[in-house]
Every structure is written in C-alpha cells, then in structure tokens.
Design a protein that fits this description.
- By secondary structure, the protein is an alpha+beta fold.
- The chain has 2 domains: about 230 residues, HIT-like (HIT family, subunit A, 2-Layer Sandwich); about 170 residues, 2-Layer Sandwich (HIT family, subunit A), CATH 3.30.428.10.
- The protein has 8 helices and 19 strands.
- The strands form 4 sheets. The protein has an 11-stranded antiparallel beta sheet, with helices on both faces. The protein has a 4-stranded antiparallel beta sheet with strand order 6-5-9-8, with no helix packed on it. Strands 3-4 form a two-stranded antiparallel sheet.
- Strand 8 and strand 9 form a beta hairpin.
- Helix 3 packs across helix 6.
- The termini are far apart.
- InterPro entries: GalP_UDPtransf1, GalP_Utransf_C, GalP_Utransf_N, HIT-like_sf.
- Its cofactor is Zn(2+).
- One of its GO terms (molecular function) is UDP-glucose:hexose-1-phosphate uridylyltransferase activity.
- It comes from Aeriscardovia aeriphila.
Length: about 425
C-alpha cells in the first residue's frame, strides 16, 4: 500500500497537463501485484477525494512458495519460452492462462466482471479493482504470459539436452489498462479527455517498463470485440513488455536499418512524406498526426497513425499538444471505424479491431532509425464477413488482400474530412 500524496514515477517525467490534471495513485493488490489509478476527475486530482487502496481478497503472495498436489512446498514458477530453431523466434508458453476467467462470447466461464468497479453495498466479488469507481487503472495481469520472479535470473538451457532447442524463463511483464469502469462502454464513445488520460497511461508505463532489467520491447495494444477473441467484455487494453524483440518489430528494424545504411534516411519518415505527397491514401490528419492506409495494406481495414514530428521513438517522448492531438485522432479513427461497414441501416457496427503501438526497442542500437507508429486493423471485410487467415496467410505468412488500399481510403473519405482540425 502506498501513500497517495507521495507517489512519484521513478523514470517518467509528467507533462505540464498531467501535473495539473491527472493524479497517479499506486497500491498493491492482495497478491502483491502493482496497481495504479490514473484519475482525471478534479476532486481526486486535488486530493479532496482519495482512492481505496485495500484489496480484501484472501489471495496469497504470488511469489511465495506453495504446496503441490503431493503436499510438497515448491517455489513459484515463471512462464517459460522456447526458441524455434528454424526461425529464431521465442515462443512463451504460459499454461496458467488456461485458467483465466472468460466473460465474453460462447466460451464464457464466469458471469462476473473482474475489471468492473465494485458495486457499493453489493456482496464481495473477485474483482481486480479495489474501489467502487475509477477513471483509468493499470495493473499487472493476474494470468500473465510473461513474468519476472524476484531473485530468478533468466538462464538459457536446452530442452532434454537437445542443443537445437533453447529454453529460458519468459521474464517479461504483462499489464492491463482499463479505460472506463462501465462494462458496456465503447472506447469510441469515450470523451477525448478520457482518451487523453489513456494516452498518459501508455506514456507513463512505457517509460517505467523500459527501465526494468531484461525488457527489450514495450508493446501497448488493444484487442476489441468478441470476434477478435477478447476474453473479458470490458473496455481495456494491455501492455506487454517482452524480454526479446517481437518478430514483426524485428523485421521492421531490419528494413529500417538497411534503408538507413543505403540512403542515410529514415524509412518511416520517408514513407510518411510519400503518402502526404500522393494524398490518395491519407484518411485523417491534424496538427501533430497523420493517418493513412499503407500502400501494401494486408487487412481489409488497415490504418497507420504516425506523428508529424521527427525523432519520436516512444510514446513517453510526445509533448502535451501531441498527446491531445493523438486523443482526438484516436477517437475519430474509432468512430469512423465503427461506421466503415454499412449494414443497411446507416448505424454501422461495433467494429472488432486491434490497435498495436510499434515503438522503438529499449536497448537495440537500431532504435535510433525507427519511429513511433500505431497500426490499426480489423479482419472484418464486410458487414457480415470476416477475413480468415487460411493456408497462405497462416501457413506461409503470405498475405492475399481482399481489397485495395485505395478502396479502403476511399471509404474513409466518405466518412469525414481528412483535416479533422476543421
């Protein structure tokens, strides 16, 4: 438990807006996991009201030894990962996630919602939020794909003595970001001021997580919609901190570095310049950000969002104006995404999507030739059709598009002005 008046991030430098309008409060859940409130309501920002810091659940410390089925005391076990000798990719294997609660879709296993605020006066439920209300909260995942065990160093070994198959602890970290206390809220309907707080959460955690020993990449992302496979029906995102560079970013780094070696330029900067010159695929822009459909879009709905200013590698490097403009851009993108497919009634739909933040790696020297970008996409290809990743995509990672980038952009142009500052 922490004193709400004295918490200061260790590495994160708050912006002027955050110092005046957002308050971060830290505590620990019953099993020891970190928990952060990010409040934007004036009474909590001023300290007139304070958040509940006590988690009454009878949970044991996650790092304490526990008894196995035979009554033997065993130490906590970190998730493991193995390296594919054919591709060099690390594959985390987190069997504990098989037991996580599922509240969304036909495979729901529980009826309660662990991400909802507690109902005042109601019987206690096994929820993750200690208080009866919140604005935005961030906490460590109870069923993480990756986890660091104090005192346990990641050690590379082999599997059954086979030198071809390497294994080590998946010593990363997984966090949950809850956007709103209401289970039925849609991110597209949140006020821009709340999305601004979410941006602050992404920036705050990027800075702090980047300083954890062994972390190589910080990846904030949002899975939205039952069809995407979300397990909890609540407006939220996640932040994965990998102890390796994920395959997609690794491939991008290879290309950005090769481009820099050949031309001396920044590939992501030059892609943006080319899209602005062509204009056809640019779907939105404001003072600080540009959104465009990439020229080789894989998905039937795909938009990349990039900052105008050069030199921005990670979310915590954004200034106040860029964070406000991002909140505006993200809100507009979600609204237009929901309107993209017409079911015939003019109301659009609750679009299933993934929003993936591509940030520069933490330690890799190639980071200086990268550039922050958001990759937003949906596998819905019509109001009543889904793009399934079949043989070519899943078997060979060779995408075959069902449309063209120009058609995607043309549909966005029908939904609103490119200049959203008007």
């Amino acid at each position: 438990m922490s004193d709400t008046a004295t918490y200061t991030p260790r590495y994160y430098e708050p912006t002027a807006y955050e110092r005046e309008h957002i308050r971060i409060t830290h505590t620990n859940l019953a099993d020891g996991r970190d928990f952060f409130y990010l409040d934007d309501e004036p009474d909590y920002v001023s300290g007139a009201k304070t958040r509940e810091l006590y988690d009454p659940r009878p949970l044991t410390d996650r790092f304490e030894p526990h008894q196995d089925a035979n009554g033997n005391l065993v130490p906590p076990q970190a998730p493991i990962m193995r390296r594919d000798p054919l591709t060099g990719e690390w594959i985390p294997m987190a069997t504990a996630r098989m037991n996580r609660p599922i509240t969304a879709g036909k495979g729901a296993t529980v009826s309660g919602n662990p991400l909802a605020a507690r109902v005042p006066g109601a019987a206690y439920q096994d929820g993750e939020i200690p208080d009866t209300s919140y604005d935005v909260v961030v906490f460590e995942n109870r069923f993480p794909s990756m986890q660091q065990i104090p005192g346990v160093e990641a050690t590379t070994t082999t599997v059954a003595g086979n030198p071809l198959v390497q294994q080590r602890e998946a010593n990363g970290r997984c966090e949950v970001v809850c956007f709103d206390p209401h289970e039925d809220a849609l991110p597209a309907d949140l006020p821009i001021s709340r999305i601004r707080t979410i941006v602050e959460a992404w920036a705050f955690r990027t800075a702090e997580l980047s300083h954890i020993e062994g972390i190589e990449q910080v990846f904030p992302f949002e899975n939205h919609g039952e069809e995407i496979g979300v397990s909890l029906a609540h407006p939220h995102g996640q932040i994965y901190s990998y102890p390796f560079i994920a395959p997609k970013l690794e491939k991008e780094l290879q290309h950005t570095e090769a481009y820099h070696d050949k031309t001396g330029g920044n590939l992501l900067h030059d892609i943006l310049a080319a899209e602005l010159e062509a204009q056809e695929r640019v779907v939105m822009r404001n003072h600080s950000w540009v959104a465009y459909v990439p020229a080789a879009a894989r998905w039937p709905l795909e938009v990349h969002v990039v900052p105008v200013r050069d030199g921005i590698l990670t979310l915590d490097q954004l200034d106040d104006q860029e964070r406000w403009d991002l909140a505006q851009m993200y809100s507009t993108l979600l609204k237009r995404g929901n309107a993209f497919f017409d079911k015939g009634d003019g109301k659009g739909m609750n679009l299933p999507y993934i929003a993936a933040w591509h940030q520069a790696p933490v330690n890799d020297k190639r980071r200086e030739n990268y550039r922050l970008n958001l990759q937003f996409f949906s596998f819905r290809r019509a109001a009543n059709k889904i793009k399934y990743l079949a043989g070519s995509e899943s078997g060979m990672a060779a995408w075959i598009s069902d449309t063209t980038p120009e058609k995607i952009a043309a549909r966005f142009h029908e939904l609103g002005d490119v200049d959203i500052d008007k």
